[in-house]
Amino acid sequence: MSEAPHRVKVGFAVNTFYDGAIEELREMMRLAPDAESAGFDSVWVGDHILWHTPIIDGLTLLSTFVPTTRSVELGTGIYLLGLRQPAVAAKTLTSISALSEGRLVLGVGVGGENPAEFAAAGVDHARRGALLDDALAYLDRVWEGNPDRMEPTGDRPRLLIGGRSAASRRRIVSRRAGWLAAFVSPSRIREELDLLSERRGEDVPAALHAYTLVGDDEKAARAEAGRFLAHAYAMPEGPLMRYTIAGTAEQCLEQIAAYVDAGVRELVLRPASWDQRGQLQRWAEGLLPGIAGLGSAAAGAVSS
Predict the structure, then answer these.
(1) Fewer CB within 10 A of the end CB, N or C, for the chain?
(2) Averaged pLDDT score across all residues of the chain
(3) Alpha carbon distance 48, 268 (integer Å)
(4) Confidence of residue 39 (pLDDT cuts 50, 70, 90)
(5) Looking at per-residue confidence, does 2 or 89 come out higher?
(6) Which of 161, 153, 18 is nearest to 80 (CA)?
(7) What is the tens place of the pLDDT at every residue in 210-221?
(8) What is the pTM of this model?
(9) How many angstroms separate the Cα of 222 from the Cα of each of 46, 53, 246, 272?
């Protein structure tokens, strides 16, 4: 049976960690409208309370994109929902959804790679999964509506859930959510999608968050990406570079095509570089035209 062609959506993920210069913060806010003008479908932010480098609160930055963009979706990839008190998180999320007229995309996950931020927030790191479930249930009640409350909730956002654990799979299946994959190979994407779709009885949409760097040659691109990731994550670059898309535009398109062939229908590309604007321009010129033709080609590959 043939599968209908899918246009692969492409999002630009703005880095929220910085080196300390005020101009970097101004640039973060300018990137969203420029990404929209360049043809991206969405703009995304990450989320951490504490990190290895100075970092801006993701939802605060996302809120600055609301008045400067018109049609792009505004996504969180990912938001550590369980790290927050549910009512406070719900107020912020519903407000962004209302102010953006329903353009919010909610990507959530348990996080946990930095236990110090859970301690700083007074949250039990060991209960982060249960707390995420509780917060999602709270959001369900908020968005289901209550006739006695006239709260501006906006449209209920599309939900994406990160992770590859049994608990993450349970959430994706039971909540009919999409999967937001990260640091994973194309073959693992296909395996997970087969498992998720079998358990849910229908195809599960998959998005891929991937650090990406387009350069003039592969060696230089991978070296720049490696330096950036080693600094941002305060760890050796090797494990991170294994799943980083880097090289010339043609080489990056080949790597992206492998993910699309595996079933990815949405890309959330984050610059593996401090030069975010330079990457935005390179992607707009060298990646977006090529990605536009991948969806229809992959439909036959996935259905065969």
Answers:
(1) N
(2) 92
(3) 18
(4) very high
(5) 89
(6) 161
(7) 999 999 999 999
(8) 0.93
(9) 22, 21, 6, 9
pLDDT at position 175: 95
Flag whether pLDDT at 5 surpasses 70: no
Q: What are the DSSP calls for the chain, one per residue?
A: ------PPEEEEEEP-B--S-HHHHHHHHHHHHHHHHHT-SEEEE---SS-SS-B--HHHHHHHHTTT-SSSEEEEEEE-GGGS-HHHHHHHHHHHHHHTTS-EEEEE----S-HHHHHHTT--GGGHHHHHHHHHHHHHHHHH--TT------SPPEEEEE--SHHHHHHHHHTT-EEEEES--HHHHHHHHHHHHHHHTSPPPEEEEEEEEE-SSHHHHHHHHHHHHHHHHTS-SHHHHTT-EEESHHHHHHHHHHHHHHT--EEEEEESSS-HHHHHHHHHHHTHHHHTTHHHHHHHHHH-
Return the CATH number of the domain spanning residue range 9-303. 3.20.20.30
